[in-house]
Amino acid sequence: MKALIEILVDVVKAHGGTVSQREAMREAATKAEMSVSEMPYIVNSAVADHRITADLRSGKLELVV
């Protein structure tokens, strides 16, 4: 799980710290060779670990500094 969170965090970092959730999930799923449908669980885990924040209104993921 930690490796998948790191992949997601790396994707967010690569986009300057803010990226749309849809784009981040698609890129992270490709890098992890997973289905995009499994990515919401990884996003929620990364938020719970205080690695990123997810804004439901804007659909953006942001790196926690």
N→C terminal distance: 21 Å
Uncertain segments: none
Q: How many helical stretches?
A: 3
For the largest beta sheet, what order do the strands appear in spatially?
1-3-2
Provide the gyration radius in Å. 10 Å
- Quaternary: single chain
CATH topology: Arc Repressor Mutant, subunit A
Compute the number of strand runs: 3
Which CATH C-level class is it? Mainly Alpha
Q: What is the name of the CATH architecture?
A: Orthogonal Bundle
Structural class: alpha+beta
How many domain units? 1
> What is the residue-mean pLDDT, rounded to a whole number?
98
Q: Estimate what percentage of residues fall within beta strands.
A: 15-25%
Series of secondary-structure elements, N-terminal to C-terminal: HEHHEE
Q: What is the global morphology?
A: globular
Question: Largest sheet at a glance?
Answer: 3 strands, antiparallel
The helix content, as a percent range, equals: 40-55%
